[in-house]
Amino acid sequence: MTTHDLTRTPPEALRHARRMFAIVAVLMPALLTATGTVVMLAWMPTMPELVVTHWGPNGADGHGPAWTYLWLLIGIGLLLPVLMAVVTLALAGAHWGGAARLMGALAAGLAAFALSTSLGSLTLQRVSEESTPPRIGGVMALSFAAMLVVGALAWAAQPRVRPAEGRTLAPRHVVQVADGERVVWLGTTSMPRAALIAVVVMLLALAALAVFMLGTGVDGGWIVGASVIIVALAMATATAFRVRVTPEGFAARALVGWPRIVIPLDEIESVRAVDISPFGEFGGWGWRIAVDGRTGIVMRSGPSMEISRRGRKPFIVTIDGAEDAAALLQAYLDRAADPASNAPDQGGSGS
Amino acid sequence: MLIRVDPDSARPLYDQVAASVRADILSGALSPGDRLPPARDVAGALEINQHTVLHAYQRLREEGLVDLRRGRGAVIAAGAAPLAELARDIDELVGRAAALGVSTRTLAGIVQSHRELRPDSRTLEGPEEVSP
């Protein structure tokens, strides 16, 4: 389609949002990590061969070379934020939204957290060389505080971009409802096959791990097993939904029967078909709530129905043929709003 | 997929359901490989009997537009692809007929009798008489 996309994030705002995002999600972690690295390298000559690298409930219970902290800092403070930034930039595309902004804030917060924990832990061990074993509690509290503060600053530094409204799609065919006729629209929306396969493969690997851990009596096997069951249940309820539009309104339910949603016609204000980007607006896939409060069944990017509800946030469902479904629902809304059009129209032209 | 029925129409309900599926194939809303919703769901939405929907699906299968497989439900057959290619021609034909004052009903009758005149004309299955 070549129609001009009026509702997408305007290029100017998008460029600004992406620039600020890059600053907080890439530049800031890079600066923080570089600072930490320099400090750590300066400390290295005076550090003991082995330092505490792990704290259990009863104090230090793991030791390792001081270098461990450097790798930790670089991994969590730089590589992870950069990875998050790349994924966000790639997935959000031109549909910037609150979810992308949140990822930027999170990336900056993570970098602050990594810097604070690694330098904090080492500081503890520089100060109390052989006295009482150091406690990590204070450092952790400080690190979480640093993450929150830096994350909040990074959130505030980024512009608030109105969530992309998405392009309104027009139906390919005129959808009309004649008197006495019952017209319904049925469709199924499901996760893209590639995504489904990836999740199933991951689940099988986890299940194999759980069986192995339980079989060999490794601690925590039951935790893995329980998470496999929970993820499998979540999958079953969230991979495919049946959607229908009838004269009574809109309904959707998961293939397994739950969860389901019914929106009666008189609760619907208007409906339209839009093009949405699940990542920029909803931060992911599934039955979701966007940062701006819209809820929806989001399985993929592309054509979706956006149902505006009276006194509530709109409901979104991504589905093939959203144009026709929205047109039909709108036809019922128009009919309800203007009962006169319901009057008998006998002997219509020969069509 | 859009399905419309008019309970007051003289046309059998199953035929109306089948016609809706055909129209969806023509419009491109359904293409080969797409799964039709379970008859139970269609029947529930239309407030008609499930067997009526199954009857429609059976009819479409006889026309080579739908594959019915146990456990997989009704799937649009590869044989439905040529139908979508006809969409534009049919649009044009119906439009021209309307401009000339020929109703779709008359047009349908002509098409039907045309088919009856030449029973050996190609079916939707495609050419079968490929010599070995």
Low-confidence stretches of chain A: 1-7, 342-351
How do the helices and strands follow one another from N- to C-terminus of chain B?
A: EHHHEEHH
Query: What would the average pLDDT of chain A be, to the nearest integer?
Result: 80
Largest sheet of chain B: 2 strands, antiparallel
Instruction: Give, in order, the helices and strands of chain A.
Output: HEEHHHEEHHEEEEHEEEEH
In quaternary terms, these chains amount to heterodimer
Strand fraction of chain A equals: 15-25%
CATH hierarchy: architecture of the largest domain in chain B: Orthogonal Bundle
Main interface: chain pair and counts = A-B, 22 and 22 residues
Radius of gyration of chain A: 27 Å
With strands numbered from the N-terminus, the spatial order across the biggest sheet of chain B is 2-3
Explained architecture:
- The complex is a heterodimer of chains A (351) and B (132).
- Chain A has helices at 11-43, 67-92, 98-127, 137-157, 193-216, 221-238, 278-282, 322-337; strands at 50-56, 59-65, 168-169, 182-190, 240-246, 249-254, 260-264, 268-276, 286-289, 295-298, 302-309, 315-318.
- Chain A is α+β, with helices and mostly antiparallel strands.
- Chain A has three domains: 11-157, no CATH class; 168-189 and 240-342, PH-domain like; 192-238.
- In chain A, the strands form three sheets. Chain A has a six-stranded mixed β-sheet.
- In chain A, a hairpin with a 5-residue loop joins strand 9 and strand 10 (295-298).
- In chain A, helix 1 packs parallel to helix 3 (98-127) and helix 3 packs antiparallel against helix 4 (137-157).
- The longest helix of chain A has 33 residues, at 11-43.
- Chain A starts with 10 loop residues before the first helix and ends in a 14-residue tail after the last helix.
- Chain B is mainly α.
- Chain B has two domains: 13-80, Winged helix-like DNA-binding domain superfamily/Winged helix DNA-binding domain (Arc Repressor Mutant, subunit A, Orthogonal Bundle), CATH 1.10.10.10; 84-117, no CATH class.
- Chain B has a two-stranded antiparallel sheet.
- In chain B, a hairpin with a 3-residue loop joins strand 2 and strand 3.
- The radius of gyration of chain B is 16 Å and the shape is globular.
- Chain A binds chain B through residues 172-173, 175, 177-178, 180-188, 242, 244, 246, 321, 324, 328, 350-351, and chain B through 1-8, 27-29, 35, 37, 41-42, 45-47, 98, 103-105.
